[in-house]
Amino acid sequence: MTILVTGGAGYIGSHIVQGLVDRQQPVVVLDNLSTGFRHAVPPEAPLIVGEVGDEGLVSRLLSEHRIEAVMHFAASSVVPDSVTNPLGYYSNNTVSSLALLKSVVAAGIKYFVFSSTAAVYGNPDNQLVAEDQIARPMSPYGASKLMTETMLRDIASASSLKYVILRYFNVAGADPKLRTGQSTRAATHLVKVAVQAALGIRAGMDIFGTDYPTPDGTCVRDYIHVCDLVSAHIEALAYLRGGGNSATLNCGYGHGYSVRDVVDTVRRISGTDFAVAERSRRAGDPASIVADTRAIRRVLSWTPAFDNLEAIVQHALAWERKLTAQNR
Ligand code: UDP
Asked: Are 140 and 117 in contact (CB under 8 A)?
């Protein structure tokens, strides 16, 4: 009953692999190490270095390891990069996923858990965005993930494949035991950038856009601790194994923080008053996006354990300190 985790050497994937290993679930990792790290994969999980789009390799892996379920994380995930490099995003996210799905269907795999994103919604009209809201992505990143969702739904309805699509809101934080964390080079995501500014790894940071129609003019996001995302995946797989129907579920907490809230929290927790410059808006950013979490709480037995921005920041800071000490 082995699980194949694509992108298992990356930030989110490595936390999931660790979570599966912690629960004694057999797991195999496929990662091309373009942004992931060998050291992020726990020793209990074999790492195969290769491409998700390599149908020969994937088909071999699926049969040799008798894979029961695939969790698909391998993807590019930086909104502004997708705006400047749409070809790269459609190719790495959508085309590769199509190749993976071909192999999955040919091998008769039962369960597929797909790492999707709140970026599929674009700039929603409602305060809280529910799964049935019309998806109008504002970036090639969001569009590339939405296309994969569509392919997966169509393929599942014409085969025996069952899926859970998890639409992540803003994932941050690190394993509290610091076995893995976000090691991404040239990081762009807010919590990581702010933590690096607090630790003096960068001279300061920018706030992109202070004229949004939000309470303090900066963008509002629903930040979810990576460990709560792990438990959502574990519960999603348990749900499918228990005979659950295919489902699309938001992964967030249901409340938002502005960019300024995050900066202030990082300043407070780190005790450092790092420099912050106010800049113009960044391409592809919706003003506010916060999850309606009723569906995931109803469908899965999921109870978040880290619904607390301070805990997210504390764990992100602790991981960044560890990384810095290692790289010295
Ligand atoms: N952001 C910022 N400064 C940074 C990085 C991000 O002001 O150095 C803002 C960004 O414009 C967005 C929010 O923080 O409004 C979250 O961005 P992030 O890249 O972390 O995640 P996204 O929501 O794009 O997936």
From this structure: no
